[in-house]
Amino acid sequence: MRHFDYSRADSVDQAVATYAQAEGASFLAGGTNLLDMVKLDIMRPELMVDVNRLGLNQVEELDDGRLRIGAMVTNAALARHPRVEKDYAVLSEALLSGASTQLRNKATTGGNVMQRVRCPYFRDGNSACNKRDPGSGCSAIGGYNRSVHAVLGTSDQCIASHPSDMCVAMAAIGATVNVLGPEGQRDIDFLDFHLLPGDTPWKEFALKDDELITHVTLDAPIQGAKSTYLKLRDRSSYQFALASSGAIVALDGNTIRDARLALGGVGTKPWRAQEAEQALKGQPATAATFEKAARVAMQGAKGYEHNAFKIPLGQQAIVRTLTNLTAG
């Protein structure tokens, strides 16, 4: 058994200061991912700083139309928030497709953004894994790599897919991650927050070691747009995506005025398909347009022995999502 110290913070500044003064500290929010990692002996914090009493559990509407979400807002509360259901359906649907009711009641917005990969080679503590043990190799590349491994954004160092549904929706919407550290506040564009593995797969986030996520601020909704989320998986509940698609579309008649598209299950990070968005804008909302955009979104994908099927599956997810959004 590994021992650790515990500290409950009463303010954001206190939480950041306590964390900065300790070696090997972790912030404790809902704990649905962190405690798993501790039990598996993947993460070994010497101090857990409890941030549950910092008042970061509110959703605020800003004057410019954006939505500011406290890091401690639970997935369940966010999914059912009236403004989210009305203007960000893609986010509500993504959240409700993830995990289980019990976990959604406990898991937090900030924790979900920081969610670790579900690659079994990362989690078993023994296999070669550059993300867990830099320089040891990647067992997934030559091993069984079907369900939780990516075809976009991979490298010869790591092919683990990012697991979050919520983050796919936020990537499609556009957002800013607001953080606080000893040097003060700063904002990180959501698309820059999660890092590609490249040659340093152990660096997963554009977050300094002593910074705390305080909020995630969503971009203002696109006027007149509709959005939705589609998750394709092996079973209908409590399962990570094989491929998922979060889409936002605004039409002028039958012409696509604006579009946002992000993918899950197929990328090493929440995957914003910006070139595919450009292929959609100004085009008729037809099957041919959707199929072309789907091909563009998956160009450059690299399949491995067991997961090459994710390339056509990702394309199918995009076409189905866009078809559902523009039908009728």
UniProtKB/TrEMBL annotation:
Alphabetical list of Pfam families matching this protein: CO_deh_flav_C (PF03450), FAD_binding_5 (PF00941)
Every FAD-binding PCMH-type domain range: 1-223
Record-linked Gene3D superfamilies: 3.30.465.10, CO dehydrogenase flavoprotein, C-terminal domain, Uridine Diphospho-n-acetylenolpyruvylglucosamine Reductase, domain 2
GO molecular function, one term: FAD binding
InterPro entries per the UniProt record, alphabetical: CO_DH_flav_C, CO_DH_flav_C_dom_sf, Diverse_Substr_Oxidored, FAD-bd_PCMH, FAD-bd_PCMH-like_sf, FAD-bd_PCMH_sub1, FAD-bd_PCMH_sub2, Mopterin_DH_FAD-bd
Sorted UniProt keywords: FAD, Flavoprotein
Protein name: Xanthine dehydrogenase YagS FAD-binding subunit
